[in-house]
Amino acid sequence: xxxxxxxxKSIFVDNMVFATFLGMCSYLAVSKKVSTAVGLGAAVIFVMxxxxxxNWLLDTYILKDGxxxxxxxxxxxxxxxxxxxxxxxxxxxxxxxxxxIIVEKxxxxxxxxxxxFLPLIAVNCAILGGSLFMQSREIQSVGLAFNYGVSxxxxxxxxxxxIAAIREKIRYSNVPGPLRGLGITFIITGLMAIGFMSFxxxxxxGEEEAVEEKTAQVETIEEAKNLANNExxxxx
Amino acid sequence: MGLLSKKDxxxxxxxxxxxxxxxxxxxxxxxxxAITAELKASIxxxxxxxxxxGLGNVVISLMRNIxxxxxxIIVQLIVVATLVIIVDxxxxxxxxxxxxxxxxxxxxxxxxxxxMGRFEAFALxxxxxxxxxxxxxxxxxxxxxxxxxxxxxELLGSGTLLGFKVLGDPIEKTGVYAFGYENNGFMLLAxxxxxxxxxxxxxxxxxxxxxxxxx
Lengths: 236, 215
Fold this sequence. Notes:
The structure holds two protein chains of two kinds. By secondary structure, chain A is mainly alpha-helical. Chain A has helices at 2-13, 24-29, 34-63, 84-106, 108-114, 118-122, 125-136, 142-170, 182-197, 213-235. Helices cover 60% and strands 0% of the residues of chain B. Chain B has eight helices and no strands. Chain B has helices at residues 6-13, 29-34, 39-63, 72-94, 96-102, 113-123, 128-158, 190-207. The longest helix of chain B is centred in the middle third of the chain and has 31 residues, at 128-158. The termini of chain B are far apart. In chain B, 43% of the residues are buried. The interface between A and B is large, with 58 and 53 residues.
């Protein structure tokens, strides 16, 4: 159930593109044709499915406050979380390079369709954003992290597929000159985002406003921490 | 212009309008949209990008002859990540509340396409001084758009600017609120950021018809 909820929440409610604006650059740049959009979208799902759980492991066993305790008691006080940016991005860049090499070796046809997009992905904000949100939302297990990676990837895929289809159609319409190309794409994305906002109440019964989730999220994390502290105190 | 030759000055002024990173080069959109609900956050973000891009461009440009081209993306990412960690730690130390509002978007400066885009397009091929100017110019161009969006979203959305109630008090009905004006809360939501950028692009291209794209 937890998995299912996270799955739908990451695809629709917290959609990477429409709720958090991640991966906008490649979303705008590569959405002129449906076929290329599908290629990039698939590559994003693939890479996110690998990097998010990997970064979850890194975060839990190396970076978090007290995470190094498995090395021995004397390491319990280390907090390496300030290194998380550099660790995450290094993992992503290396994984992208590795995936590129492996795919090229074993499946030339897949490489031909994904190939040119893989280097682009290293600098796609959605990938790093996925890992950073995974960290800040304190996802509990590696399974959930994998789920989060895949479903955010699917959300991104849906978004780029939709906008590419619209842009292919809109080529035949008479858009006012100054709005052509980038301008109209922005406005359409805005309208689509309004549409996606209606998913906001889908899982939470309307209690939580999806849009103010950035600040709300921090608050809820703090609340959760407070609750956990209280429980600890009670136990003690 | 004693300090800057004409060519150097162009490096700074070009990205402000006719070659703006956001509206024309389509770089760095993510952060531009996500953190502009308040003017203050947009200003801080602009300063952070100014710092990272200015310095990063210089570092990459100094190293451009020794970076093997195959692994250059990783090298660039490490340079940016280091600079961003500095920014993040400074923000956490001196503006903790703000760094919470910006949340993951400080980290996302790393993958802000403006930075990688300028490294690839400029710093890898030019000397440090020119790269520095290019970095400053592009981050200023980025800042202009961010501040315009932040200004309108905060003014229309919550009736404040930098937290000051410029339109009067909505609860006590002073200022324009006395005439029945209401805050447009929709401006604070995500979709309006996109539409605001769309409108900025519209206005800019209307004024300079050369920029209009083919359909």
